[in-house]
């Protein structure tokens, strides 16, 4: 959540502030480490004296305290909703409920959240047809698909699809637990989707290898839970990367084995760098078990060519690494010359699937693409080359959570299988999808070019995904001031941008970057992005003046 | 998932069977342990030789294999969807798609699933009004709450509530990520619900201490993740218990510190037994950090009196244990003389909250009660006495998963706050809830008395929750046969019941029980339960004859 070298600030910013509570918390943070031994022995005495009165124990004797909880949880960092976002929420609350003292504090009237790929929060509309089907799935038959006036609100192809999906749900509706891997027929929709996308033989994707999950995040966590057997294990992750990977490795106590993307070649990957990273980790005694590929990239937006994907898949096969292929932005490819090429397809064309010579888990989600249905929490993982007994362990883990939410599973099915060509909603559904896509495509170039044109900024073209990841030259005064304040220079920058312009970005240090580079990640989702770019330009001038030396 | 002493069977039953695959898998299971060392060194060589050909590595060299995955995951057991349920699914598939050879194999035409508290899967209907609101939340405004003909399908109080909830969602709808703790206004509904239920002062429940989660399971896992710092930590769990607790402890590598419920006093709890269990664990060097209370009980159905709850809360305060209070069956209390009494209320009345002398996490869910909305995956945890910096760590963990599904959050809000008295849907909503409740209440006594009347069975009254947990006398032949087959006697019993009657129960050994006791858990949800009890009686006679000696 923040850099390890800023403990006081961590406590300060992570705490919910109420009147006067901040200073006390900062004090406790400073005091805790020196008090640890004393507190522990006092606690032991308190337990031994197993009689009341109970009421006067001070808070630090509590069983569940910041010293007693899992170190891995404590160490875990997650930048996207970290320090800057928490500060933004605080300001947002102040703006909504201004007190007499704070009402003129900020020169803006709302926060523009560009920190998170959350399209519906920045005015992207839900697609009509999938939502009509979802609504019908919620309604009991008699007042939904069988209501005599249902046709007044719902088109026939939504009613028909809801009827089919209710049959797939065994007539139980979405109120029943499903199979722990997800509704079988919905997984079949996923399987057909993958086969069509990759030009694979019909039936070549096995539904038993597909798990429907609460977004891709849950699937990624599930697989990593199995992979990290002990603290000697590590997983190769790109630098920069989406911080779920580092956060989950922190939580599981595994090694983060970073490999660098090449900023100058639009954040390209090269095999030499993968070999270097792997060799270095091995020489440090790390048992490297897997590699994370994010294509299209997050936060970097690169779209890999078929050859690049094949090279990476071959690298994994050669070194017997499980490939974790994060493909949640597969629909978000903006240049005519680019095409999404899945890791599965690469493995297939290399003969690695037929020969059972690759282990691959690929992740997808309804949260991105043109659906942008983040709040529905629907996603899937397809596993290739995973032994049945290991698959059974994943099933066991999924079963202990019973199942992922049935509406989210339904949304995955609707993403994978839209209205049929010729159905009444087909044209409008395609038109709506295209409108979202074109909007994203336009803003991708407006924002990346706009940022690249700011003197002191450098921003690669956003060829995919939903983000720009510019580097920003830090004036000398900002370097010094941030050092004195115990935060990274780009955290200082992002905080200043938030406080003066109301724009919430994520410091690049939260994703990882080369030593000496600074910058941030912004989405390009908001229709306000032109104004945002102007504000960022304006702010940077002021920032450079403020921190000139 | 199954007893540790039946490895071969574990592999056999856990594996998805395809033509002829079983025997191969059983063989591999036997071979694996002797091959482990060889395989590891061969794998090391394979990695060192980092050149193609890649295609001919045998499966056991794969990076992700049953030997290389997390031991904790491998060891984890989860009975509710374990061996018997997997076998039931297999038979169910065979019945749906009979082959010429198998068509006359079973003397029943469908499986009756009584293994899992999944009300909608056994004909319980969704409540109308909440589903109407949920449907409107899915529909974009123009074709939902603002559609000129919306009133033809939806009552005005559903439209009005959906309008309010959409405002709470910031106008973004359920397609956007929410705050990671859940939508603030929905958490306020939870807070008011708790205050009213417990007769607490309005405003005494802090929304910052409430997290909305994907069912109670996610909340329980979240809290336990923080509590188990290392393998010295343990949590007290009832015997018998809901296997999520033991499974999660397995996964996190913590100790299961069992305390026995007293079957003869309707599965009551007594403090002496808690003291005994705690003292024994401490003397074994276990750092006991928390106690799990399930009230009303699962699988046992006991409803604790206010004094019993107070005694347990005091015990936790005295020994500085975090109390994990699983209260998902709080609405499922069937005897007139019983009343649900929450742990929070007990702590409050004892002055422990005011004096900050208790740490309590209480869990609730939309899956049980009279909603039974398992598939929607909505739940919450309210935390009491948890330091802010620890709360912030929970927030960080929730943030790394972004948020729980927004429709599930909405369902929690609807459970906590129904239509207002006087609104058009108020009466019908109450009537529907009462009908579900009365049905459950009737079946609770029909099933528990029916089972108790079977010679050789003993079944305590089901005063709460959704389950009966009879003990079953095992004939000598069953003891011997199960031993020979490497499974627990009640697993043999449950398998035989499944194969001859098509009834799927969970062997009691999956929940834990006193040495020498045998039995099973059945829900009493299905309207077919009278027939089920007759079938169980009938089967037991045959079973006793078959395994007489």
TrEMBL record, chains A, B:
InterPro entries: ALAT1/2-like, Aminotransferase_I/II_large, PyrdxlP-dep_Trfase, PyrdxlP-dep_Trfase_major, PyrdxlP-dep_Trfase_small
Cofactor: pyridoxal 5'-phosphate
Source species, domain of life: Eukaryota
One Pfam family hit: Aminotran_1_2
Subunit structure: Homodimer.
Coiled-coil boundaries: none
Record-linked SUPFAM superfamilies: PLP-dependent transferases
Chain ranges of the Aminotransferase class I/classII large domain: 150-526
Protein family per UniProt: Belongs to the class-I pyridoxal-phosphate-dependent aminotransferase family. Alanine aminotransferase subfamily.
Keywords, sorted A to Z: Aminotransferase, Pyridoxal phosphate, Transferase
PANTHER family tied to this protein: ALANINE AMINOTRANSFERASE (PTHR11751), ALANINE TRANSAMINASE (PTHR11751:SF29)
GO molecular function: transaminase activity
Protein name, as recorded: Aminotransferase class I/classII large domain-containing protein
């Amino acid at each position: 959540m923040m850099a390890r070298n800023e403990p006081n600030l961590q406590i300060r910013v992570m705490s919910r502030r109420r009147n006067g509570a901040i200073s006390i918390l900062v004090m406790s943070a400073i005091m805790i480490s020196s008090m640890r031994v004393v507190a522990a022995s006092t606690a032991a005495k308190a337990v031994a004296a197993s009689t009341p009165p109970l009421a006067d124990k001070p808070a630090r004797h509590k069983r569940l305290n910041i010293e007693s909880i899992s170190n891995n949880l404590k160490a875990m960092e997650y930048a996207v909703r970290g320090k800057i976002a928490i500060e933004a929420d605080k300001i947002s609350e102040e703006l909504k409920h201004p007190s007499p003292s704070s009402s003129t504090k900020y020169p803006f009237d709302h926060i523009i959240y560009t920190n998170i790929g959350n399209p519906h929060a920045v005015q992207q509309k839900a697609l009509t047809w999938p939502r009509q089907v979802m609504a019908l799935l919620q309604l009991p038959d008699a007042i939904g698909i069988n209501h005599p006036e249902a046709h007044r609100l719902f088109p026939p192809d939504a009613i028909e699809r809801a009827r089919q999906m209710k049959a797939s749900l065994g007539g139980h509706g979405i109120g029943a637990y499903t199979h722990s891997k997800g509704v079988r027929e919905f997984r079949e929709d996923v399987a057909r989707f993958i086969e069509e996308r990759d030009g694979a033989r019909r039936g070549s994707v096995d539904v038993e290898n597909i798990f429907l999950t609460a977004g891709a995040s849950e699937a990624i966590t599930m697989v990593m839970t199995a992979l990290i057997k002990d603290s000697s294990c590590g997983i190769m992750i790109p630098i920069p990367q989406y911080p779920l990977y580092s956060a989950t490795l922190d939580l599981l106590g595994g090694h983060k084995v970073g490999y660098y993307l090449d900023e100058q070649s639009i954040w390209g990957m090269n095999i030499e760098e993968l070999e270097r990273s792997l060799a270095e980790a091995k020489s440090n005694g790390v048992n490297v078990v897997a590699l994370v590929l994010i294509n299209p990239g997050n936060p970097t937006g690169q779209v890999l060519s078929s050859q690049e994907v094949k090279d990476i898949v071959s690298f994994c096969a050669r070194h017997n690494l499980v490939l974790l292929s994060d493909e949640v932005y597969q629909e978000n490819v903006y240049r005519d010359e680019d095409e999404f090429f899945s890791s599965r397809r690469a493995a297939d064309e290399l003969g690695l699937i037929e020969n059972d010579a690759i282990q691959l888990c690929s992740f997808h989600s309804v949260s991105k693409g043109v659906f942008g249905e983040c709040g529905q929490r629907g996603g899937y993982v397809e596993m290739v080359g995973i032994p049945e007994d290991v698959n059974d362990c994943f099933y066991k883990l999924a079963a202990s959570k019973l199942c992922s939410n049935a509406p989210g599973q339904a949304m995955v099915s609707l993403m994978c299988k839209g209205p049929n060509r010729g159905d009444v909603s087909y044209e409008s559904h395609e038109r709506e999808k295209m409108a979202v896509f074109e909007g994203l495509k336009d803003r991708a170039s407006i924002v990346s070019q706009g940022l690249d044109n700011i003197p002191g900024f450098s921003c690669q073209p956003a060829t995919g995904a939903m983000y720009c990841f510019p580097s920003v030259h830090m004036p000398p005064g900002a370097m010094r001031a941030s050092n004195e304040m115990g935060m990274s220079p780009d955290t200082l920058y992002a905080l200043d941008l938030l406080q003066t312009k109301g724009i919430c970005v994520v410091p690049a240090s939260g994703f990882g970057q080369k030593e000496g580079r600074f910058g941030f990640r912004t989405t390009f989702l908001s229709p306000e992005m032109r104004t945002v770019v102007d504000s960022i330009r304006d702010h940077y001038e002021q920032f450079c003046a403020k921190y000139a030396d």
